[in-house]
């Protein structure tokens, strides 16, 4: 886990299934110098402007580097690392029990072992999460969300509140000397 002396640690997110590890290196606009996926470790080094990011993780168990995939975008580097054996979930990503500060759980991709059995075959096609079959094309016209069932289409007419005035006795200096005459008028109006 020791990068070069002048290096920084990138934020690294991870999640897993019984057969793969999802690893995201969250650094935008990075130029990858080294991305070495070995059976028992991952070494990374990259530059962003004048900053160098690096890490070296010794893994809890073995990977199949040849079956692993990577995708580099302007926002992050995403890895789908094939486990050497399809068996139970790893209790942690790295061999060392002490978790490094830059390594975090990717809750967007995380599934518990018992939830993985519920996932339909092929739902994570191409290694991407399923998102529950949600049709994202229907979200384009959300706008102000007017007319949500039973809520009316727009804002209530607040002009009816304009004549209510302030609450007396709340530090309002205009009511000095008030002796309750307004109260009698108001109660007579409400009875009518």
From TrEMBL:
PANTHER family: CO-CHAPERONE PROTEIN DAF-41 (PTHR22932:SF1), TELOMERASE-BINDING PROTEIN P23 HSP90 CO-CHAPERONE (PTHR22932)
Pfam families: CS
Segments of skewed composition (Acidic residues): 111-120, 171-192
InterPro entries noted in UniProt: CS_dom, HSP20-like_chaperone, p23-like
Protein name: P23 chaperone protein wos2
MF-aspect GO terms: Hsp90 protein binding; protein-folding chaperone binding
Gene Ontology terms: cellular component: cytosol; nucleus
Family statement drawn from the similarity comment of this UniProt entry: Belongs to the p23/wos2 family.
Any GO BP annotation: chaperone-mediated protein complex assembly
Region (Disordered): 111-192
Chain ranges of the CS domain: 7-94
Biased composition (Gly residues): 140-155
Family matches, as Gene3D superfamilies: 2.60.40.790
């Amino acid at each position: 886990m020791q990068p070069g002396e002048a290096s920084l640690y990138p934020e690294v997110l991870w999640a897993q299934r019984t057969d793969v590890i999802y690893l995201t290196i969250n650094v935008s606009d990075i130029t990858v110098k080294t991305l070495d996926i070995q059976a028992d470790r991952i070494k990374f080094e990259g530059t962003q402007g004048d900053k160098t990011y690096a890490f070296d993780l010794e893994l809890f168990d073995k990977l199949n580097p040849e079956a692993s995939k990577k995708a580099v975008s302007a926002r992050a580097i995403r890895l789908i690392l094939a486990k050497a054996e399809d068996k139970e979930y790893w209790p942690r990503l790295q061999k060392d029990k002490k978790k490094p500060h830059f390594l975090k759980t990717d809750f967007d991709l995380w599934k518990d072992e018992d939830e993985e059995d519920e996932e339909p075959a092929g739902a994570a096609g191409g290694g991407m999460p399923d998102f529950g079959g949600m049709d994202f094309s229907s979200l384009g016209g959300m706008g102000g969300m007017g007319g949500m069932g039973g809520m009316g289409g727009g804002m209530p007419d607040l002009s009816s509140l304009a004549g209510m005035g302030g609450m007396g006795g709340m530090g309002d200096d205009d009511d000095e000397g008030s002796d309750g005459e307004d109260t009698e008028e108001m109660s007579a109006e409400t009875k009518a």
